[in-house]
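A sample follows:
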Amino acid sequence: MTYSQRSTHSAASSDFTYLEYQISIAGEELKQAEHAGKACEADLNRLRTSPAYDPVADASGEEKLLEQATRQHALAEAIRTSLAGLEDELAKLEDE
């Protein structure tokens, strides 16, 4: 359905606009979560490959970075799920 077709249906138009906005926001949140997860992984890799790395002394820092990376990956996955649901809702509206 084109934008002009949606705009002639006032109720559907607002639904489309809302869903498109939510999809846009979710897409940005996903990019941020993925970027933060990659940054945590890069920090963890730098820590582990540092010449001064001591597994015993650096264990708490390593664990903290690992937990942050895990949280970011879980957040990204939750956003992907939400995004898929929003896209499904938009597709259903387009089919009507």
